[in-house]
Specification:
With about 260 residues, the protein is of the alpha+beta class. The chain is about 25% helix and about 25% strand.
């Protein structure tokens, strides 16, 4: 793996030199965009709006529009704005992980200690393990400040970027149902179904079956096979059918268990 950021974890007065690595990879197929007429690949080019000519990466700079005029920013400018945040993941406090709502979580990364920081890294990891808490901090990567959570995982520490409160849209703009029309026996039945479907979390049971099915379809088309399109119809059931649906769901679960 290639490091995408190098800096340090700020833990009180202790600095732990680390490298940041992406913890995830995409599972979907890499599909190319093609011209329908001749199946030629579509290319996206960086074009100057004034001249219509393509601009090479080395000639591209970043700018911010101030009253119709661009202020050009260099890599040094991003560093000058906050040099400490550009190089340090500063842990500001420690919190209970369950206090952070799932909507805030964004992207996970692995933190690897550099040689000079291995002991301090291990100390922080074990302290997080023993306390049961996560570190809440912030840092700057690619000219953007992010909040983050540091949590131990096996022998390492995972950094998970989380969103700022201002990045979350207000749910009050949506039309959400209340709970007044939920009947006690319906809720009891729903709780029974949840209990029957409850089990230990095992992520290995779940696979990206859609990508697998799509690849199977691609291979079949490549061999010239004709494929039938399965018909799927979404049925919108009335509220009065809710109890019968819940009962049927329980019966299905019982049959699978027997």
């Amino acid at each position: 793996m290639r490091a995408i950021w190098t800096g340090a974890i700020g833990f009180g007065l202790v600095n732990i030199p680390v490298k940041l690595f992406s913890a995830t990879q995409q599972s979907e197929l890499n599909l190319d965009m093609l011209d329908k007429k001749d199946n030629a690949r579509i290319r996206f080019r960086r074009v100057n709006e004034e001249t219509g000519k393509e601009v090479p990466w080395e000639n591209i700079v970043k700018g911010y529009d101030v009253d119709g005029k661009y202020v050009i920013l260099t890599d040094e400018d991003f560093q000058k704005a906050s040099p400490e945040k550009s190089k340090i993941i500063e842990i500001n406090e420690f919190v209970e992980e369950n206090e952070i709502q799932c909507i805030y979580f964004e992207t996970p990364y692995y933190l690897e200690p550099q040689k000079a920081g291995e002991k301090a890294y291990a100390l922080l990891r074990e302290a997080l393990n023993k306390s049961g808490k996560v570190g809440l901090g912030n840092f700057v990567m690619r000219s953007k400040e992010s909040l983050c959570v540091l949590k131990p995982l096996e022998n390492g520490i995972v950094l998970n970027k989380i969103r700022f409160a201002q990045e979350i849209r207000d749910m009050s703009e949506l039309n959400m149902p209340g709970k007044d029309n939920i009947k006690p026996n319906e809720l009891k039945m729903a709780m029974t179904l949840i209990d029957q479907l409850t089990g230990p979390f095992d992520i290995s049971k779940y696979k990206d079956s859609y990508t697998e099915a799509l690849l199977k379809l691609i291979n079949a088309k490549a061999k010239g096979k004709k494929l039938e399109t399965p018909q799927l119809r979404v049925v919108h059931s009335k509220a009065k059918d809710l109890m019968s649906q819940l009962k049927a769901s329980l019966d299905v679960k019982k049959k699978k268990a027997s």
